[in-house]
Amino acid sequence: MAELDTSGGGHKKGPGVKKGKKLSTRIDLTPMVDLGFLLITFFMFTTTLAKPKTMEINMPYKDPSMKQEDQNKIKESVALTILLSKNHKIYYYEGMATDPTKPPDMKGTTFAAKNGIRDEIIAKKKNVDAMKQSGALGPKDQMTVLIKPDTTSTYGDLVNMLDEMNINDVRVYAIIDITDVDQEFIKATEIANGIK
Amino acid sequence: MPHAKLPRKSTHIDMTAMCDVAFLLLTFFMLATKFKPEEPVVVKTPSSISDIQLPDVDIMLLTVDTRGRIFFSIDNKIKRKELIEAVNYEKNLNLTEAEKNMFAIDASEGIPFSQLKSYLDASPEERKTMETNAPGIPVDTSVYAPNNDLATWIKNARNTNPRLRICIKADGDASYPSVQKIIKTLEGWKIFKFNLITNLKGVPPGTAAAEEAAAAKKG
What we know:
The complex is a heterodimer of chains A (196) and B (219).
Chain A: H1 30-49, E1 53-58, H2 68-71, E2 79-84, E3 90-94, E4 107-109, H3 117-134, E5 144-149, H4 155-167, E6 172-175, H5 180-192
Parallel strand pairs in A: 2-5, 5-6
Antiparallel strand pairs in A: 2-3, 3-4
Chain B: H1 16-32, E1 47-48, E2 52-53, E3 59-64, E4 70-74, H2 77-91, H3 97-105, H4 113-121, H5 124-132, H6 149-160, E5 165-170, H7 176-188, E6 193-200, H8 208-218
Parallel strand pairs in B: 1-6, 3-5, 5-6
Antiparallel strand pairs in B: 3-4
């Protein structure tokens, strides 16, 4: 232990031998322990903070030689198109708006936990499941989310949206370039709602 | 009244054992810690529920800051040397051996090819100021665009180390088009699988992911 054996060796203590004062060699280790734990705390905090997490992302396979008719295989009824716009605003509509004569019913929402886009995704998912049950959709049909980030949106919006896909267990989703038509839809909705 | 005399006991505790434990743990944490590599810019990554660990080796990191500047880095010193050799050859940069070695030990690059030689030639202080004022690596939507420097970096890096995993570490406030250009470039090289670095956040209760996590815990 920390003490040392300070009793003199084996020699005889005669009357002529002066007795030296015995000094304790015991050291108070408390400050050293303090220091040790302080450093441990420091290293513990730095290690846990330095480990980044990642999100894996698979983009749809694209090939210029791929035929157009092979690409659009999603049914209108399973699709939910989500447009990411400026100031973290989201616009969404059912289907893919492939028919230009019928403009989609576009609604605006946010990333809020309540009454946000999450509720819409869950509702759509239930809807698709119900259609599967009733036989309107085949067993292989899956809810598909098309994410179209506008040029005014941020990377954070995109990650939030991808995260919603993970949170709500949406298996099929794709990030697609926004079209001019969609941008016009956003503008029209903004004007209709008085947003500048 | 006669008191029974209690023998006084020392309150001194032997701290040696505690000290031993403290330093044992300290040694463990010191050896286990891997310090963050020096970053060219401060990036505040967005959060997600994804908890996949980032591997330690074979990483190509593309950092994007709030202004959309792109910084490129790969981890292995030997591979960095091979990479600069290849890039030097392709782009006719006429780099000297010393400049190539400088690149090998450098952390990350945010300089277009046109300024690369003067950047590697500069003194460490100058290089630091150049790094903070760096314009970022030029990028375009097409990999064949002549000014798409990032495409050249990615192509050559993948040639030197085919196992490279591509990670995008972008700031949450970075505009989408700047990230989109990177994704387009990756798609141009037929890379459809890559990683986005995010912070970990809790799974919101009552959702499909929360139920899945609960089921995994039970089973």
